[in-house]
Amino acid sequence: MSTRATKSGASAQSEAAQADNADAKPRRRSNWWRPRNWRVRSRLVALIVIPTAVALALGGLRVYEASVSTVTHAHIEDRAQVGVLIVDLANQLGRERTASAVYISDNADPDRRSDDLRQEMETERAATLDLQSTLNARLDDMGTMDGDLAQTRLAAMRSQLSTLESLRTEVDSTRITVLPVVTKYRTIARSLSDFNQTIADETNDTELREAVRALTALSNARDQLSYETALMGHSLARNTMTGGISEAIDSSRARYENEISNFIQAASPQQRAVFDENFTGLEVSQVSTMRMRVMYRADRGDPLTNVTPNDGPEDYAAIADTALERLNTVETSLAEGIAADANDLRDQALVRTIMDLIIVAGVLLAVFILTSLVVRSLVRPLRTLEDGARRVAERDLPEAINRMQEAGTAPESVKVTP
User: Fold this and answer.
1) E strands, 249-312, where?
2) DSSP 55-88
3) Which residues contact 257 (CB under 8 A, 6 or more apart)?
4) Closest C-alpha among 213, 295, 214, 282 to residue 254
5) Distance linking the first and last C-alpha atoms of the chain
6) DSSP letter at 394?
7) CA separation, residue 17 to residues 10, 11, 358 (Å)
8) Residue 4, pLDDT score
9) Between vectors from CA 206 to CA 200 and to CA 209, what angle results, nearest 5°?
10) Quick one: which of 46, 171, 72, 195 has its CA closest to 118?
């Protein structure tokens, strides 16, 4: 075999190989997405990246859900703390309502009413303004409420509270009667109670939702009792009761009993225990007894006071205020308990978020380590094979041929290209 022939054959084989490669390239380009057409390095990278990306996506979703839960319960805690302030403000509005009703009862002409009663009313108004200012500052700190319902109720509450000033002006300078006044106060108090229902809007915790429902029912019951107290105080101060006021008191008492029933149904055993422990005693039962006695006298057209001992407006005010204070104690306790429960839920959500982060980080680390070990176990034999092939081609085979040539066992014309 001549050297020229060898070169010609090698050239022909090279051209044929190039032609085959030219034909194969389009096919490989068109099927590049198939793993069997990937290079070894690409396959190894995919072996690391794909499991890591899946673990990262699933873990990130879990952490995101836990983070959302933490933020949601933080908002619930903020609203629950606002709820405590709302309870205080609603009770104070009840005291202001009673003082306004008694002030109106003194004389239809605002210029001829008692200065002492005016001073008592102004004292209650000042206390209301302080609590209202505190509530507004807290709401401003919270910023925008989440949820359309919460924003609607917040706007309604602010709107109702803004009407207080005009209502006070009417009480001070007009011949307004008592029913429109106490009814307007009830509308304002109801807006406060409605806003407190948004405490549990964003939570799936059943116990917290039921606790808020119980608080709402008790707040409505307390407002009905305060409404009744204002009308009773007004009538006793005048020693007479109109038919409209009598009907309003009967209606208020029916609503009060209905709300107490709603509270008992929704309240937890702990909440009922607080109610039973505080809203009991002689003063509480005397409120109903004195109301029934006054209503009986009004139906007969008899004088309402000075018939029996301790039946004057001051006597009724004393026992009614005691009953309302005890109901206020229960209401405040429930509101603070809800705030504490919301805080616990927020802490639990935060702990879950931290634990999820740790678990996700651990899973990612484990996936990375395992895939790295697998890749290393695959790469090491390939590297060993590559190093052996290079050693044979570059050193062992040329040395063996040289030894054969030196020993005269191979033709001189044999040439090896490493």
Assistant:
1) none
2) HHHHHHHHHHHHHHHHHHHHHHHHHHHHHHHHHH
3) none
4) 295
5) 21
6) I
7) 10, 10, 56
8) 44
9) 30
10) 171
Confidence at residue 24, expressed as pLDDT on a 0 to 100 scale: 47
List of residues 6+ apart from 314 with CB closer than 8 A? none
CB 291 within 8 Å of CB 236:
no
Q: Give the gyration radius of the chain's Cα atoms.
A: 43
Cβ burial 24-59 (10 Å sphere, 16+ → b, else e): eeeeeeeeeeeeeeeeeeeebeeebeebbeebeeeb
The answer to whether 378 and 44 are in contact (CB under 8 A) is yes
Query: Within the chain, which residues score under 70 in pLDDT?
Result: 1-41, 43-44, 47, 375, 378-379, 382, 408-418
Instruction: Give yes or no for a contact between 131 and 89, defined as CB atoms under 8 angstroms apart.
Output: yes
Q: What is d(CA 201, CA 76) in angstroms, rounded to the nearest whole number? A: 8
Who contacts 211 (Cβ-Cβ below 8 Å, separation ≥6)?
200, 266, 267, 268, 271, 334, 337, 338, 341
Torsion sign (Cα): 141, 144, 147, 148: positive
Spatial separation of the C-alpha atoms in residues 119 and 253, rounded to whole Å: 30
What is the spatial distance between Cα 65 and Cα 353, in angstroms, rounded to a whole number?
A: 8
177: region left, alpha or beta (phi > 0 left; psi from -120 to 50 alpha): beta
- Residue type, position 37, single letter: N
The tokens for 46 are 């995919």
Residue with tokens 């209905």: 258
Q: Is the dihedral of CA 338, 343, 346, 348 positive or negative?
A: negative
**Residue type at 410 in one-letter notation:** A
Query: What Å distances lie between residue 296 and 4, 27, 241, 253, 303, CA to CA?
Result: 136, 103, 11, 15, 10
Distance of CA 91 to the CA centre of its chain: 26
DSSP secondary structure code for residue 280 in this structure: -
